[in-house]
UniProtKB/TrEMBL annotation:
<dbReference type="GO" id="GO:0005975">
    <property type="term" value="P:carbohydrate metabolic process"/>
</dbReference>
<dbReference type="Pfam" id="PF02879">
    <property type="entry name" value="PGM_PMM_II"/>
</dbReference>
<feature type="domain" description="Alpha-D-phosphohexomutase alpha/beta/alpha">
    <location>
        <begin position="14"/>
        <end position="153"/>
    </location>
</feature>
<keyword id="KW-0460">Magnesium</keyword>
<dbReference type="InterPro" id="IPR045244">
    <property type="entry name" value="PGM"/>
</dbReference>
<dbReference type="GO" id="GO:0005829">
    <property type="term" value="C:cytosol"/>
</dbReference>
<keyword id="KW-0597">Phosphoprotein</keyword>
<feature type="domain" description="Alpha-D-phosphohexomutase alpha/beta/alpha">
    <location>
        <begin position="184"/>
        <end position="285"/>
    </location>
</feature>
<dbReference type="GO" id="GO:0000287">
    <property type="term" value="F:magnesium ion binding"/>
</dbReference>
<keyword id="KW-0413">Isomerase</keyword>
<dbReference type="Pfam" id="PF24947">
    <property type="entry name" value="PGM1_C_vert_fung"/>
</dbReference>
<dbReference type="Pfam" id="PF02880">
    <property type="entry name" value="PGM_PMM_III"/>
</dbReference>
<dbReference type="InterPro" id="IPR016055">
    <property type="entry name" value="A-D-PHexomutase_a/b/a-I/II/III"/>
</dbReference>
<dbReference type="InterPro" id="IPR005844">
    <property type="entry name" value="A-D-PHexomutase_a/b/a-I"/>
</dbReference>
<dbReference type="InterPro" id="IPR016066">
    <property type="entry name" value="A-D-PHexomutase_CS"/>
</dbReference>
<dbReference type="Pfam" id="PF02878">
    <property type="entry name" value="PGM_PMM_I"/>
</dbReference>
<dbReference type="InterPro" id="IPR005845">
    <property type="entry name" value="A-D-PHexomutase_a/b/a-II"/>
</dbReference>
Length: 543
């Protein structure tokens, strides 16, 4: 097998965003595109000679050829071994677990998460560090710098490796171990939760549906929920992973998880409904006719986590991304826990988890997780919910209502304005940024602006600073507005407007969510001049 050194040139725009490099699949299919980025990862992390890596992804279109290129490039650069999920499949949390469990030097995850898959849709490549988490900014910046000076890459000239069969083979001098993608992950879940209690609940007639959305969690959910926990056969919907996710968006929200929502709103709805995203790190939780906001979900999980054996001794602390509602802060206050506020993206939780400062953390975008891995974890959240339901004997609706009665309710919604011209989105942010200093004391939509600033984050563990992580405005009466531009999009800019309001009056808890947020929404539109800058009155998505 010949080791080839191929001359290349830097390709513009290979900058990792909130969660790795994401582009249209056709962009990844361009000449040298994958090769350039992968070589830049190797260069950015000081080479892969003698190292062991994990490789896998959500199985979307283009995963197979990309995996083969990565294997040939790892071998050409002297890697000792790559551990690959069978058929190049590994959910993001399962990859994180394997990286940690096998003590490897990191791994590569092929996914564009909840974005659709296919030749005309999205693809992504992300590097995770030896702790199992997404590379922190310091490393993604080194990778990006490497993309800008690249002159050559190394690749082995070889046949494709058979990734369909579990077992060990070689590629040149490199070992390739193809593993069952589900086994280690299922074992980890079994070590965290009270499977006996959950099994008993299913035996007693408890019903659930889990919508895998034709994405990566199908085999994981079938094995864990149906085979190990005894949920009725057929509880997992859309369980076969497809390269195009059956043409849908594998985005677990009430709009895209249509099958699940129909079932959960039917008269015969089961007690519990859930879904996960393309790569298995997000979760959606529902009860009969009730969608649980992710910001509430992480607060409820933190408040009740001691139901599960892994968390029975209590939590070390909690954390949420800045735009996530402050429902979690209320739990932390009541329980005397430290509560950290980090920028958007799981990589910012890594140091807090590694240092043992926090046990549970979450994001408003349907990501929840704990110190068991270094990624958010969709099925983990589903299992913790099940464990809590089994232990408390309560239903989802009762649990949520009881939570609000104890801690108050933080009404919360994210409004996305998609595919805005980048210059317009940046102009809106620059305009508001320039006026922040004048806002405190201003009256708007019947509220007074209390504070207005731009979020800069200093990591309490390593002191690294991440600037410009979102504009935030607090209003009298517990209101809050956050604005930031998405770092995962593949076309134009997405403006995310996060709206929050607080109530401690139980008479208001049942209100329509968008109505409850009307004043805060109006304030956001006035203060940020959204229509003036974008021409848009209404968001494309209300999450
Ligand atoms: C979005 C979410 C963020 C999440 C990220 C990756 O980022 O807002 O909370 O961590 O996606 O999620 P952005 O920059 O577009 O707002 V996933 O499930 O892609 O790995
Ligand atoms: Co995801």
């Amino acid at each position: 097998m010949e080791r080839l050194t191929i001359a290349t040139q830097p390709i513009e725009g290979q900058k990792p965003g909130t969660s790795g490099l994401r582009k249209k699949t056709r962009v990844f299919m361009e000449h040298h595109y994958v090769e350039n980025f992968v070589q830049s990862i190797w260069n950015g992390i000081g080479g892969v000679e003698g190292k062991t890596l994990v490789l896998g992804g959500d199985g979307r279109y283009f995963s197979q050829p990309a995996s083969q290129v990565i294997l040939r490039m790892a071998a050409a650069s002297g890697a000792a071994k790559v551990i690959v999920g069978q058929n190049a499949i590994l959910s993001t949390p399962a990859a994180s677990n394997l990286i940690r469990k096998r003590g490897t030097d990191g791994g590569i995850i092929l996914s564009a998460s909840h974005n659709p898959g296919g030749i005309d849709e999205d693809f992504g490549i992300k590097f995770n560090t030896p702790n199992g988490g997404p590379a922190p900014e310091e490393i993604t910046e080194r990778i990006f710098a490497a993309t800008k000076t690249l002159t050559e890459y190394h690749i082995l000239e070889a046949q494709d490796v058979d990734l369909t069969t579990i077992g060990t083979t070689t590629l040149g001098d490199m070992e390739v171990e193809v593993v069952d993608p589900v086994a280690d992950y299922a074992e980890l879940m079994e070590s965290l939760f009270d499977f006996d209690a959950i099994r008993k609940m299913f035996n007693g007639g408890f019903r659930m549906v889990f919508d895998a959305m034709h994405a990566v969690t199908g085999p994981y959910a079938t094995e864990i929920l149906e085979n190990r926990l005894g949920a009725a056969k057929g509880s997992v919907l859309n369980a076969t992973p497809l390269p195009d996710f059956g043409g849908g968006h594998p985005d677990p929200n009430p709009v895209w998880a249509k099958d699940l929502m129909r079932i959960m709103h039917s008269p015969d709805a089961p007690e519990f409904g859930a879904a996960s995203d393309g790569d298995g790190d997000r979760n959606m939780i529902t009860g009969p006719s009730m969608f649980v906001a992710p910001s509430d979900s992480v607060a409820i999980l933190a408040a009740n986590a001691t139901a599960a054996p892994a968390y029975a001794d209590g939590l070390k602390g909690v954390a949420r991304s800045m735009p996530t509602s402050r429902a979690l802060d209320e739990v932390a206050k009541a329980r005397g826990l430290d509560c950290y506020e980090t920028p958007t993206g799981w990589k910012f939780f890594g140091n807090l988890l590694d240092e043992g400062r926090i046990t549970i953390c979450g994001e408003e975008s349907a990501g929840t997780g704990s110190d068991h891995v270094r990624e958010k974890d969709g099925l983990w959240a589903v299992l913790l919910w099940l464990n809590i339901l089994a232990q408390s004997g309560k239903g989802v609706v009762a649990l949520v209502n009881d939570h609000w009665r104890e801690f108050g309710r933080n009404f919360y919604s994210r409004h996305d304005f998609e595919a805005i011209e980048t210059e317009k989105a940046e102009a809106l942010m620059a305009d508001l940024r320039g006026r922040l200093g004048d806002l405190p004391g201003t009256e708007v939509a019947g509220r007074t602006v209390e504070t207005a600033d731009e979020f800069d984050y200093t990591d309490p563990v390593d002191g690294s600073v991440s600037k410009a992580q979102g504009l935030r405005i607090t209003l009298s009466g517990g209101g809050r507005i956050v604005l930031r531009l998405s770092g995962t999009g593949t076309a134009g800019a997405t403006l995310r407007v996060y709206l929050e309001d607080r109530s401690e009056d139980p008479a208001t808890f049942g209100q329509d969510l968008q109505k409850a947020l009307a004043a805060v929404q109006e304030a956001a539109h006035v203060l940020a001049r959204i229509e003036h800058h974008t021409g848009r009155k209404e968001p494309d998505v209300r999450a």
